[in-house]
Amino acid sequence: MGSWLSEYFVAKGADVVALVQDEDRHSRFYTDGLAERCTIVRGDLANFLDVMRAVNSYEIETVFHLGAQTIVGSALRDPLECFESNIRGTYNLLEAARRLSPMVRAFVVASSDKAYGDSPVLPYTEDMPLRGLHPYDVSKSCTDLLAQTYAHTYGLNVTIARCGNIYGGGDLNWSRIVPGTIRSLLANEKVVLRSDGSMIRDYIYVRDVVEAYITLAEKSYDVDLAGQAFNFSPERGLTVMEVVQEIGRAMCVEPELVIQNRAKMEIQNQTLDSTRARSLLSWAPKWTIAEGLEETVAWYRKALLR
Asked: Which residues are CB-contacts of 79 (< 8 A; sequence separation ≥ 6)?
């Protein structure tokens, strides 16, 4: 996500400052030459001095808080690391912005549908309570509540973007269904599903998310949206099996599956209602799942087969 957002801003001539913990030379941020066009601050979100230095030294006006531990399995294995990154990292960045206000004029938190937790009522709307139960879900619930605290208590101009499963070129977390399936099919291997394939999620293309984040930041300059959360979704839930089939169509192959059915502590069904974003922000997704996957597959063909 960070590479795509950086790409948009450097193309517009903006000064982009990226807080980078680890230098992954395989990441799109480096392979597509984006790092060379940004100012990089080495640091850790969990270290307040690193965060404060990044925001203060480069006089940041707009913050996009994208940094987080995002893999559910990793969070289950090491919840402390997840909490340090996602919870401490969030309040460190919010506190830095508070101390440096009014220099920081807008602050967008990249949240997730996981913040809602499990619900018998779908799709999620923004007025539903945040009820994360498992480590990653709880970290996102806390992230949202912290953002709301800084908005309502300190007047920080912070807004929250909640998305479902974001897919697109550059995602190297192969345990995720989209990049993992594409890599397997490019290697003529069977597609391994950790679940039984019936879980339902929103799948939103990364370019639509970039537009969502930018729209939210721009609107918050002109309209008082502080503390508000917005769902961004194509409003078409897909099962894991359906996504695999869509990828197969994009690659003109018939996937051969290995269904492990061993996924643990994951919510069965999650879908989002984007009425608020459509009405207040005039945002709507532009990419269908077929269009997004076609471009995504092309990126991985180039990246993995070169």
From this structure: 135
Q: State how far the alpha carbon of 95 is from the alpha carbons of 47, 143, 156, 266, in Å.
A: 12, 13, 10, 31
Q: What is the pTM of this model?
A: 0.95
Q: What is the pLDDT of residues 31-83, one digit of tens each?
A: 999 999 999 999 999 999 999 999 999 999 999 999 988 788 788 899 999 99
> 75-109 pLDDT, tens per residue?
889 999 999 999 999 999 999 999 999 999 999 99
**Element at 20 (helix H, strand E):** strand 17-20
Nearest to 34 by CA among 8, 57, 68, 60: 8
pLDDT of residue 158 exceeding 90, the answer is: yes
Three-state DSSP class for residue 107: strand
pLDDT at 306: 67
* Residue spans per domain, the chain: 2-172+205-235+270-286
Domain 2-172+205-235+270-286 listed as CATH 3.40.50.720: yes
So which residues are the catalytic ones? 136
Rounded-to-integer distance, Cα 185 and Cα 40, Å = 35
